[in-house]
Amino acid sequence: MNNSYDNSLVSKSIFNTQNIVLANIGWGVLALLYFLLFSAKIPGADGIESRAEWYVIGTNIFEALAYLGAGILCLRNWLSPQIVSGRNVWLSIGLGMLSYFIGGIIFGYTEIVLKEEPDVSLGDIFFVLSYLLLGAGMILAVASRRINLEKWQWLIVLAIAVFGSLLAWWISMQQETSSELLVAILNWFYVVSDVVLLIIATTLLLAFWGGRVSQSWRMIAAAAFSLYIADMWFKYAQGPNYQSGEILEVFWVFSGVLFGMGAALEYDASLRRTRRTSTRKRA
User: Fold this and answer.
1) Which one of 30, 178, 250, 275 is most buried, by most CB atoms within 10 A?
2) Residue 171's pLDDT band (boundaries 50, 70, 90)?
């Protein structure tokens, strides 16, 4: 029994919020260093410069583990009856993270193992699903809170919405429009989804500012901004000479890391709130 008690204490001490946040920060820093140090292209036997295959594999591992960890942490919030923002919020976001994880695995397998770069692949099904689930979760978070922003806050939301939309439109205009209807629809779906998530994230950030769980939603907003940056860069860089592993793609890793940190901070804030409520009742 003592061994069981000791193991429980060790488990709690290892997987506490501080350690989870530090682990996520560490993973993000390692990913940044990896991209900075090893992303240079090297000449191949045919004289064409390309990135080493082991480097591309590493970028996929950094991204996959970030989203897998975020998905697990979000689903932990879903399982907690004390969670402040609502269990369905975190269920939707958690499933979105896991969908992005699966989509990334399929994309990496297609690119690295099969040596193919199709315009549409099985991974797109999971990427589309992840955007829908993320959007649903963040909308649920907005709906669960009475939005009462000041005029200047609405101006911030409007400014970011206009800037994000114009940038996405400008980048889209730089690309050749695909003749395939499905490819064109998917491209516009991703662009619109990124802008919508950016607007919702900004609204959430301002709505939760200074509240009980403000820190967690700052992380979620930063995660949405990181996803937007990575997606916009990916769309801008697309072309016949595109190769995976550009430095700005590290923002995909940052996005997963920040979603995970937001989930961990929300879990901690919810437990602390429950303990304070229980203490007042006993008093």
Assistant:
1) 250
2) confident
Rounded CA-CA distance 95/74 in Å is 8
Spatial separation of the C-alpha atoms in residues 134 and 138, rounded to whole Å: 6
Residue 82 domain flag? yes
pLDDT for the residue 263: 94
Q: How many domains does the chain have?
A: 1
Tally of CA atoms within 13 A in the half-sphere of 17 that contains its CB: 15
Q: Is residue 122 part of a domain?
A: yes
**Contact criterion met (CB below 8 Å) for 199 and 153:** no
Looking at residues 32-41, what average pLDDT do you find? Answer: 92
Torsions phi, psi of 42, nearest 5? -125, 145
| Residue 282 belongs to a domain | no
From the CB of residue 83, how many other CB atoms can be counted at a distance below 10 Å? 23
| Sign of the C-alpha dihedral computed for residues 161, 165, 168 and 171 taken in this order | negative
Alpha helices in 43-121 (DSSP H): 53-79, 87-108
82 Cβ contact partners less than 8 Å away, ≥ 6 residues apart: 270, 271, 273, 274
Q: Among the residues of the chain, which ranges form H helices?
A: 2-14, 17-38, 53-79, 87-108, 122-143, 151-174, 181-207, 214-237, 250-282
HSE toward the beta carbon, residue 172, CA cutoff 13 A = 18
CB distance 105 to 64 below 8 Å:
yes
Nearest to 107 by CA among 234, 272, 199: 234
CB 119 within 8 A of CB 247: no
Phi/psi-derived region of residue 180, left when phi > 0, alpha when psi is between -120 and 50, beta in every other case: beta
Residues of the domain holding 152: 19-271
